[in-house]
Design brief:
The complex is a heterodimer. Chain A is α/β, with parallel strands linked by helices. Chain A folds into two domains: about 5-20 and about 190-385, 3-Layer(aba) Sandwich (Rossmann fold), CATH 3.40.50; about 25-170, 3-Layer(aba) Sandwich (Rossmann fold), CATH 3.40.50.11890. Helices cover about 50% and strands about 15% of the residues of chain A. Chain A has 14 helices and ten strands. Chain A has helices spanning about 15-20, 30-35, 75-80, 85-95, 110-125, 140-160, 170-190, 200-210, 215-230, 255-260, 290-300, 310-325, 340-355, 370-385, and strands spanning about 5, 5-10, 40-45, 60-65, 105, 130, 240-245, 265-270, 330-335, 360-365. The longest helix of chain A has 23 residues, at about 170-190. Mean pLDDT of chain A is about 95; it is low at about 1-5. Chain B contains 21 helices and eight strands. The model of chain B is unreliable at about 1-10 (pLDDT under 50).
Chain lengths: ~375, ~500
């Protein structure tokens, strides 16, 4: 399998088809099934939202995505066409009632776009439950305390609005369950450290995105099945280079498929919806589950909105390059994203100074301009002598 | 004409062609400038001419004082280091653009604002020349009050990017291009791009430490990832919470300010002098009192003072020199002028037909658009979002209360208040201003780089329709006239006035 000319081909796996099918709709059949069982789906849009908090009792989190969006004509009237296409796509789908099964929305003012998405959503759709977690932009003892209070406020609102148990025992159980999920997915991801990994970046991302958009307990059997399937099949050989993708929101696995179609095997995903370092387990430290979640949110999220973290962001990329034996880094930035757009400038320079080849790609949320993307990736691989 | 310049150029060697180009451009510029000067001055009455001449001399006096004090050789050395200083020579041209078509105390208030900018700018330049051992670099939204109370000198990196395009509209272009060529996304706000470009070109001063913040926008905040690496200075970052209208946020941010003081004491020779901070805060409070009195007067129709006298005064004096004795004096004079006009029943402009507010950042490269709107259509700019703030006076009874008060000043300040928290923070202020100042329309400065503002236009449009408030959304770029030229901005304004407001022009449009 897997090598055909210079392209990396995704294998014909049964479990993969399940993940792809789960990503076809923003609210998939597993969400419908759980909601049908009386459970409560909550949409969220940012990695700073602690998933385990939204997994307590009957709650479950659904990462907001708009895979398959065709256009954002109505959302453009409100958000303008100069705002990132992820937020416009979410608003467009909200207009189309594609998220109607969600019973609540949890936002973080991670950037101006996300903040205004929430404002417009509240104005236009008036959802029954919307909450903003005011996440600070630097980490200190004082801001950790603040974050803990913020999570307590969310927890209290969830408990009173949905009549769910948000007590310490319930949260500890949710954390344990999330940790198990994270460990499982992370273990699959780490298979990519091998010289010839048994899975492609496209496959891994499809699995990860599907898991973010589904109730964890219902998708875990599929993840285990996928892991078993991957372990039974052969390795991917003959790729031209090992690549890492870095950036903000990336939902559509087809973006990675296009990169891999040119022979660049994506072995590490250091973006908002990636596994590194997003899947590091929550460490319960004896100071209560909410405090643990507050600390975890800062530790596992590497976003340019954090003012003092540039060196940490840079170092993490360098470390991953070594750990996963990466040949080149692809930085993907959604058009109009100021955080990644500006922050990536010194990041690109610093990585190149370290001798790491970098390709910066500006893209839209939905996959488009495949031909141009292929050409850029091909030229990048050739510039690396691959 | 016996010959055409392009015919001459086509027969000239390349080096000489460049020289001919430059000379012909300079000659054309000088000719147009002279023609404008004669047109402007001939329209003044004798009394207005004397006022204009007095303030022109005062502005030139400020420039001359800086040059003489530094000495010609020293000043040339500084010019090589900071080439943007040359643009300051156009300060009187800016004053003339403001004064155009205006008379009496209104004209004097315009001249006085430009003079006050020149006067305090000369102090800033002297800080650059003589006090580098106490100079810190700050981001635009970090108020300099605390650092000044510590005996430090403050250089706000974004200040020249806002000020100098008022004198030379194309001033920022080479800096914007520098940043974009280095890899910054072209769709980011042009102010952080220009600021990064100035740092890249080495046109900004060195300092002892850097203080930035998460204000006012994502691009502005993110630009300091680069700026910190370029400067390699110890850096402190202030973090204003998104939801700032509660005691919890006040406490957190006050602690943040204490952290900044400790940081500055560690990395600079500055030491906190609470008595000095008290003096500055009392000065700021006095300015706030005066500004509120001014607002009370300009609420009346027709307004006794308006436009740049109100908005440029706030932008310069509150943001850079709050509490400074010269700033306090400036506001006292403004209030005296407004009071006098009011007592004598004399409006700022006889032409006032419509009253408007400008929402979002102003138009530095087309700062006289308000003057044009006033003359062409009788639209008077009463106030703007950068001026409109909500904080109460600072309680100066103790260090704690002062820090708490300053926290509120920062968090409730323009742009900070309007770019965070729920949409109501943005929208309520607009409609409150419409009521408070008896406005006839709202202008939104639709800066292409300001995503936060862009994403509010849909809601604002619908709410204005509901309330029957005419809304002009004027597309432009903050510092880059290539995105929307002066002409295209004027066309938008004319289209709105003629088709939405359905009014005739008061006078013919003059180009330039």
């Amino acid at each position: 399998m897997c090598k055909e000319g210079n392209t990396v081909k995704t294998a014909d796996r049964k479990a993969l088809k399940v993940f792809q099918e789960l990503l076809e709709n923003p609210v998939n059949r597993l969400v419908e099934q759980a909601a049908g069982d009386g459970r409560i789906p909550l949409g969220y849009s940012c990695s700073f939202v602690p998933e385990p908090l939204l997994m307590a009792d009957r709650l479950f989190p659904v990462r907001l995505h708009a895979t398959g969006i065709a256009g954002t004509e109505i959302a453009d009237n409100y958000l303008s066409s100069l705002v990132c296409s992820y937020t416009r796509s979410i608003l467009e789908f909200a207009f189309d009632d594609r998220y109607d099964l969600l019973q609540g929305w949890v936002f973080v003012p991670s950037c101006a776009h996300m903040q205004r998405l929430q404002d417009n959503l509240e104005y236009l759709k008036k959802p029954g439950f919307v909450h903003t977690i005011d996440v600070p932009r630097k980490v200190s003892e004082a801001t950790l305390d603040w974050m803990e209070e913020e999570l307590h406020m969310l927890s209290d609102r969830l408990a009173s609005h949905f009549q769910v148990d948000m007590g310490p025992d319930s949260l500890d159980k949710a954390i344990a369950s999330w940790n198990e999920y994270a460990e499982t997915v992370k273990a699959v991801g780490e298979l990519r450290k091998r010289p010839d990994p048994p899975l492609t970046g496209t496959e891994f991302h499809a699995m990860l995105m599907a898991s973010l958009a589904s109730p964890k307990d219902l998708i875990m059997p599929e993840i285990r099945a996928f892991r078993d399937e991957v372990e039974q099949q052969g390795d991917i050989t003959g790729h031209r280079a090992r690549l890492m993708v870095v950036g903000g929101h990336l939902h559509d696995p087809d973006f990675i498929r296009v990169i891999e179609s040119q022979g660049g095997l994506v072995v590490a995903d250091r973006f908002c919806t990636g596994s590194i370092p997003g899947l590091m387990p929550v460490e319960t430290n004896g100071r209560g589950p909410v405090r643990a979640l507050a600390e975890h949110a800062f530790r596992k999220t590497l976003c340019p909105r954090m003012m003092e973290d540039f060196d940490r962001r840079l170092q993490s990329v360098i470390d991953i390059v070594r750990e996963y034996n990466v040949d080149g880094v692809v930085i993907e930035v959604i058009k109009f994203c100021d955080l990644w757009g500006v922050d990536s400038m010194p990041l690109v320079t610093a990585l190149r100074d370290k001798g790491i080849p970098v390709l910066k790609l500006e893209r839209e949320y939905r996959l488009g301009g495949e031909g141009q993307l292929r050409t850029r990736v091909q030229a990048f691989l050739e510039s690396m002598g691959r | 004409m016996g010959f055409r310049i392009d015919t001459v150029l086509s027969h000239t060697p390349i080096g000489a062609r460049s020289l001919v180009n430059r000379v012909s451009a300079a000659a054309g510029y000088a000719f147009r400038g002279l023609r404008e000067l004669i047109l402007d001055l001939s329209s003044f009455s004798a009394a207005d001419f004397l006022v204009y001449a007095k303030y022109s001399l005062l502005v030139w006096g400020c420039i001359a004082r800086v040059v003489i004090r530094r000495g010609p050789i020293g000043f040339i050395h500084e010019l090589i280091r900071y080439p943007w200083m040359l643009h300051l020579l156009r300060a009187t041209a800016l004053m003339r653009r403001f004064a155009r078509g205006r008379s009496g105390l209104y004209l004097e208030s315009m001249c006085m604002v430009v003079h006050s900018v020149a006067e305090l700018l000369s102090e800033l330049l002297e800080d650059l020349f003589y006090h580098r051992d106490r100079l810190i670099i700050t981001e635009e939204m970090v108020p300099p009050d605390i650092a000044r109370a510590m005996g430090l000198k403050v250089w706000m990196l974004e200040a020249m990017g806002i000020l100098l395009p008022m004198m030379t509209p194309e001033f920022c272009l080479k800096y914007i291009d520098e940043a974009e060529n280095a890899g910054v996304n072209p769709d980011a706000c042009s102010l952080p791009k220009a600021t990064m470009g100035m740092v890249m070109k080495g046109h900004m001063p060195d300092g002892l430490a850097l203080v930035s913040s998460n204000m006012p926008c994502d691009a502005g905040m993110a630009s300091y990832s680069y700026i910190q690496r370029a400067y390699k200075l110890p850096t402190y970052r202030l973090d204003v919470p998104n939801n700032f209208t509660n005691d919890r946020a006040e406490r957190l941010f006050s602690e943040d300010l204490k952290g900044m003081i400790a940081f500055l004491e560690e990395h600079t020779p500055g030491r906190m002098d609470w008595n000095e901070l008290k003096r500055i805060c009392e000065g700021r409070n006095r300015m706030l009192d005066l500004e509120l009195e001014l607002w009370d007067m300009i609420r009346l129709r027709p307004a006794p003072l308006a436009a740049e006298a109100v908005i440029l005064s706030h932008m310069w004096h509150f943001n850079l020199f709050a509490g400074h004795p010269k700033s306090v004096r400036h506001y006292e004079r403004l209030v005296e002028m407004a009071r006098k006009n009011l007592e004598e029943g004399r409006p700022a402009t006889e032409k006032e037909r419509f009253r408007t507010v400008l929402w979002n950042p102003p138009f530095p490269h087309f700062v006289d658009i308000f003057n044009k709107a006033e003359r062409l259509f009788g639209v008077t700019l009463i106030n703007d979002s950068m001026t409109y703030n909500h904080h109460t006076p600072i309680d100066t009874s103790s260090p704690e209360t002062m820090l708490k008060g300053l926290s509120m000043v920062i968090m409730q300040g323009p742009m900070v208040r309007h770019t965070r928290g729920p949409a109501d923070n943005y929208l309520d202020d607009i409609f409150r201003m419409v009521r408070q100042f008896d406005l006839d329309m709202v202008w939104v400065a639709n800066h292409v780089g300001c995503k936060s503002g862009q994403a509010m236009n849909g809601i604002l449009r619908e709410l204005c329709r509901e309330r029957k408030i005419p809304l002009l959304v004027l597309d432009y770029d903050l510092l880059d006239p290539r995105i929307a030229s002066r002409d295209s901005m004027m066309r938008q304004l004319e289209f709105f006035m003629e088709n939405v407001m359905k009014v005739d022009r008061l006078e013919a449009r003059r180009t330039g």
